[in-house]
Here is the input.
Amino acid sequence: MITLRPGRIATLLTALVALFLLMPLIAVVPVSFTSRRYLSLPDGNYSLRHYAALIEDPAWLRSILTSVQVGVIASALAVILAAAFCIGIWMLRPRLAGLMTGFVLLPMVAPPVVSSLTLYFFLTKLTQWNDIIAYDKLGGVVLAHTVMIVPYAVVVIMVSLSQIDRRMDLAAQSMGAAVPTRIFGVILPNIRFGLLGAFFLCFLLSWDEIGVTLFVTSVETITLPRRMWMGLRDNVDPSIAALSVLLIGVVTLLVVLRAAMLMRKEARAR
Amino acid sequence: MRAHLFLTCPVLLFLGCSYLLPFLGIMQLSFTDPDPGLAQYSHVLSDPLTQGVIWRTLRICTIVTVVSVAAAYVITLLWVRGRPMVRSITELCIMIPFWISVLSRAFGWLSMLSNRGLLNTWLKDMGLIETSLQMTRNEFAVIVGMSHYLIPFAVFPLATAMRNVDERVLIAADGMGASRLRIFWQAFLPMTASGIIGATLLVFVFSIGFFVTPALLGGGQSVLIAELIYLWIFQIPQWGMAAAMSVILMIAVGGILVLLMRRYGEMAK
Here is the structure.
């Protein structure tokens, strides 16, 4: 029970911080309706040309498709690898579990630029051997994204596994279930929401990934963030504003919906 | 040998081949390209231009860390201890920016701060300024953009610490007639110290390897370590230098993370 509520000063300061957090997201909206070809506010003339450009220029759609492809494949790979790893650790509890987990989490804690350089170095080496998993190829981007998101999948699935009652697995084992039966019949069905959550988080991370993608792509495989980067770097392209408005709208909708759902659940629980 | 130990192998092999080995390759480059030995390291650490970048990075990251943790502390306070309605609103203010892509957020700051952006237009309309203020392509924009990105990350460790505060201590302080300011300063703040330290280290680690926001909002005028590494690879190829800088960065971040884990290890006991 919280007795002392934050006072007026704290509320005022929080309002300022909230304004700071939301202002740039709102500022994008008027910019997206400008009739000019550069970043500016509409001076009386509102125009939808930048939204039209998103639809008319096939490059944007191509990039969206590339991002979805990379995201789905990389997330599926990451979830499978992570699930196998976590289940192995959970069933056996080997002595080196801490060290192994630490190693798997490495790409998550290392500075992104170091990971980027490392993966760029690796993919340029691979390019000498094959042209599927290579620099500036879909396979190469998938590999790089999988490395970067696998730690997050491991964290989510570990949490999910820690909530299973071990006695269920022990019961299955004592009644003679073999390892595959225990995994597919007992453990996996119990962590299905964890797997789904891991996949969702991985997809989002891959969808937004830019640091590593910048290093391992150039002109052939262009994900959506990569194309946005190209439109932001030199001359700022207001199409980015139109796209940002759409992306911000979707995120806001999802976050608000989730909050509303949680509130309804709480109200029902009462 | 039990069969299910093999389950852990695929990911270990995968990361071993595509992360650990190439990183060792980078380390090797840092000692061999172009000169064998420690030449790259001594060059990175003694060259005035690189030194400037390192100092600028440390300065900006320190400012960003202080700003982010302070701002996050305030908003977390209301998120954890506010009334239910206030809590929901602050939660949205934290979560919406958190899930939005770093590029959209950087673009948002460009829309706010650039010459024809929102702030300059407003200030001109109000007659406060004649010509546009230069607010992008400098350190100010980098600090603003990075803080904006990192505040939500600082919120989570702070929220954990604030939820663990023993309410009875506050009630006792209140009962003995301490003022609200004194309760906050002498009871609440010290009890959340672990969260402040955790948030500080976390934000600092994140900020030091940061690339996208500084590159977009700094406009090449205030290059940080991460952007320097990018330039050394794609503009003026100097693999050895980039590799040496990466190794230094990795060691620095590793050191901070060990500190962080010790800290939380102690608390867990």
